[in-house]
């Protein structure tokens, strides 16, 4: 893909928080999920990529309480974990290693 096209797509994403891609990447870096809030369309595949130097995980639920909708297991530095969202709704999640600081939410719409 030409560089200018990629950068315009990137700018569109930044300027439109309601964008609903069918693939989404959430980066884990410096003990944080980036972005923390993701809006996606149903059946979107979300990939969490650990670019940090520590292991993290992605556990569905709030305030360190799993709701058993998904759980990644440990994602080592440099590794990734993929989950497809096939139902609409709000999916809060956290990292069980650092629950006091690492949390996010994926909102899935039709
Ligand atoms: Cu963590």
Secondary structure: elements and pairs:
Elements: H1 3-15, E1 23-28, E2 33-34, E3 37-41, E4 44-50, E5 59-62, E6 65-71, E7 80-85, E8 89-94, E9 103-109
Parallel strand pairs: 1-4, 3-9
Antiparallel strand pairs: 1-2, 4-7, 5-6, 5-8, 8-9
Describe it.
With 110 residues, the chain is mainly β. The protein has a single domain, classed as Sandwich (Immunoglobulin-like), CATH 2.60.40. It has one helix at residues 3-15; strands at 23-28, 33-34, 37-41, 44-50, 59-62, 65-71, 80-85, 89-94, 103-109. The strands form two sheets. It has a five-stranded mixed sheet, with no helix packed on it. A four-stranded mixed sheet has the order 2-1-4-7, with no helix packed on it. A hairpin with a 4-residue loop joins β1 (23-28) and β2. It is globular. 24% of the residues are buried. Bound molecules: copper (II) ion. Copper (II) ion binds at residues 31, 56, 95, 97-98, 102.
Q: Uncertain regions: pLDDT < 50 for 5+ in a row?
A: 1-15
- Give the ordered list of helices and strands: HEEEEEEEEE
Main sheet? 5 strands, mixed
Portion in helices: 10-25%
CATH superfamily: Cupredoxins -  blue copper proteins
Q: How many angstroms does the end-to-end distance come to?
A: 28 Å
Strand order of the largest sheet: 3-9-8-5-6
Count of separate DSSP helical elements: 1
The name CATH uses for the topology is Immunoglobulin-like
Q: What would CATH call the architecture? A: Sandwich
Radius of gyration: 14 Å
The outline comes out as: globular
Q: List all distinct small molecules, including ions and cofactors, that are bound in this structure.
A: copper (II) ion
